[in-house]
Design brief:
Layout: H1 3-22, E1 38-41, E2 44-47, E3 52-58, E4 61-66, H2 72-81, E5 89-91, E6 94-98, H3 104-141, H4 146-179
Antiparallel strand pairs: 1-2, 3-4, 4-6, 5-6
Helix pairs in contact: 1-3, 1-4, 3-4
Length: about 180
């Protein structure tokens, strides 16, 4: 039973959660806002930053310049259908995406999205815990003592609880940032 591996995998869930949260905007445009957007092109799903150059020329504007004009409709569709509520203006291979002011309803939508991302991270952590417990059961079948098994079970649960608490604290900080006017 390797607790370091479980810890690393749980930390990976936190890092993915933080990356998802970086896409939620608080007040001004950021190229990382588009990071969670994936585009269905070439028969696979790709992140938008692998299909285009993303710039922020003004505080309330993002420009996206696709490298292949054939992917432009798919990129536009992905941006429109994302949970970010963005409406790109298409100018050939360049999209101009104005960032609207955040009203109270919009802020609440972003908070809901943050909670959804947090729940996804918690589920990922629970999956890691389940994998650890399954490995522990196999070790028991191979002759691991009952006391050692109980000690490892407690360690895995403690690691899980600490990781979920960290996810909750990151969520609370992001929620306060989004709701700050």
């Amino acid at each position: 039973m390797n607790l370091d591996d479980l810890s690393r995998r749980m930390q990976g869930a936190i890092n993915a959660f933080k990356a998802d949260l970086s896409g939620l905007r608080t007040g001004r445009a950021s190229s990382s806002m588009l990071d969670p957007i994936t585009v269905n092109v070439y028969g696979s799903i790709m992140p938008i930053n692998q299909l285009a150059t993303i710039n922020v020329p003004e505080p309330r504007l993002i420009t996206v310049q696709v490298w292949d004009r054939g992917t432009a409709p798919a990129v536009e569709k992905a941006i429109r259908e994302s949970s970010l509520g963005l409406n790109p203006i298409v100018e050939g291979a360049v999209f101009r995406i104005p960032i609207p002011e955040l009203n109270n309803d919009r802020r609440k939508e972003f908070v809901k999205a943050a909670h959804k991302y947090a729940e996804g991270a918690r589920v990922a952590v629970r999956h890691v815990r389940r994998d650890g417990m399954d490995g522990l059961k196999k070790s028991e079948a191979d002759g691991l003592g009952e006391d050692e098994s109980r000690r490892l079970t407690d360690k895995i649960q403690k690691l899980t609880d600490e990781t979920i608490a960290e996810i909750d604290s990151v969520l609370a900080a992001k929620e306060a940032e989004i709701l700050q006017i």
